[in-house]
Amino acid sequence: MGVSSDRWTAWDLTRRISPRDQVRVMVREADGRLHINQYPRLFRVGPDAPTTPWCIRLADAAHQFRLLCFDFDAKTPDAVENAVDDCDALSGVLDELSIAHVVCQSSAGGGRHVWIGIAGGASPAIVAAVAREAHATYETLDHGMLLNPAEGAARPPGAPHRDGSTSTVLRGRADVLAALTTTPGELERLAVVLAERKPALRHVDTRPSGPVDGSHHTHRDLSKTGEAHMATIDGGSNPSWTAFMCLLTAASAGWTLGDALHAAKTAPGMEHFRTKNTGRGTRKPRSAGEARDRLARQWAKAQQYAALQRPLPAAQEPRDLTELGAIVTDVDDLLTRLRVNAGRWGRTEAAISQRTILIALAYLTLQTGKHAVAASIRDLALMSGLGRTTAATALHALTEAGFIQQVRSSDGGNAAEWELIHKFSTTPDTVRSQPTKNPRPPPELFALRAELIRTIEHQLTDQLHDLFTRKGLGHLAGRIYALLREYAALTIDSAARLLGVSSRHMATILSRLRRYRLIIKHSEGWARSRRDLRTMAARVLGVEGMLDVRRDLYEAERVVWAWWQAEYATMTSTPRQRPRRPHVSSRPLFEASTPGERVWPRYPRSPDGRADHRQAREYVDEGVLNPENRWQLSAA
Fold first, then answer.
1. What angle do CA 135, 139, 145 make, to 5 degrees?
2. Most buried by CB count within 10 Å: which residue of 50, 364, 403, 559?
3. CB-CB contact of 88 with 111 (8 Å)
4. 3-state secondary structure of 585
5. Distant-in-sequence, close-in-space partners of 139: CB < 8 Å, separation ≥ 6
6. What percent of the chain has pLDDT over 90?
7. What does the pLDDT average to over 588-608?
8. Which residues touch 90 (CB under 8 Å, ≥6 apart)?
9. Domains and CATH numbers, the chain
10. β strands within 257-337, DSSP E
């Protein structure tokens, strides 16, 4: 049952393919049930099958991998389809390379396993290279077992699950795993192909996952990258990823949810919102309500990612891999130290905010590939979901504590530049996680960089929500919610230990999350709800839209400041020294071609001739500086 060979049972297959003479099995609790998803006991491979679910280790006693299992997780309804699409995309790559494999539905939850049998065994280094590139390519892939040659294990095809279901073969024949046909050389080629196809670090640099329909045009302006994703025929090789890229580029271009719903009706790249993957190579139509709800949830997620990536400068290829290697190593060490020294970053509300600002700076450092990054206080605040005053206080505290330093102060319209202090690594040849005298090869370096960026993006976007503002449930509640992405479930004590707070405080925060059904009871503690109800909870608390209001406020403040800087530059210069090209605050409505002429409206003045900043702000709020506005300032 669940195995594609009529001759073998699930245990027969296990006996033939297990690289070791023992498997790991679950242990029943006192009530006879299986509550915890762990396999603590060893069971010898023999004629009799175990009475509880079992898993086989992927490598033999010499730590040579005989089997590979790519585990695509499906913890939420949205993630189920993403996992299926990721699995199908990897299966398509394996078919192109003629690598025999088996695709299984791991349990009733909808997760997927892709199995490969290796002839002669593959070294941990080769498998780790494949695992890292696959993890950077497919977001739902859990690659931990492929990085653990000692104990990495998975339930084989046909093996039972603790929920009563079994691992069912969907494509391929399970007996292929006993034949062991794939060579280590083919795995190395797989790593190269995955490296070539993995998505870029930023959505503006991504490429379509399939052929593009050149006749399709969106109803509103979009970047070339967004146009390509929207026109990707049938969503390409990974429809769920393509659909999210469509939404992300649309959110970055200033579209509304209504615009996205309109585009989803006809855009080839948004096939994911019109039909669903059945898991068996076909798609079936969605109901109108399901399609609308799914798009709305993904739209909220796209807005969070757009807010996170909006402050990033234009991407440039790193010229010095040594410097990039040092940056990646420092950020890797930073995240490790934040995790093991949780008490330093969780004991006060201020410390929690400092931690978020610190990883926001680390994110900018990784994305730019530079030690010193320009970041305004307002940009950091919008990236982290904090207020600008809180962000400024956190920057000052981190500087005083020696975690960061200001390389250059703000100048006019230029943001200040910040740099992480290189104190996260100790002696370079012993304790450091990656010695400087043993640099990582470029493929491993870029794969680790992508993994770190994804980790930080998940941490920042999960808590970047109206609900986790101070008037909502607070920033610590957002940290807990983000942490439950990394862990299937947490107890009160384990969550308190990971975040560095008291168990009593943690119980209070978890109770608030439970009140709004953001977490649910789990056999191992507390887990995320399968549905994302953050927006509904924010609406109940009356904080929905707070981050949008804050973003508009900061943008208006920026415009007023730029306008005043333009006015001040005019006041303190002669006509010959004034700019001959449009100023940063200019608008086409006021543009003039004559050198020395004003190319922006005059800053409002009070009757005594002083600058009237309040009136300037009112003009900005009313959209007077917008070139499409029908009004014109009389002093223009």
1. 45
2. 364
3. no
4. coil
5. 82, 86, 241, 454
6. 59
7. 61
8. 70, 114, 134, 137, 138
9. 10-197 (3.90.920.10), 203-309 (no CATH), 546-621 (no CATH)
10. 275-277, 283-285
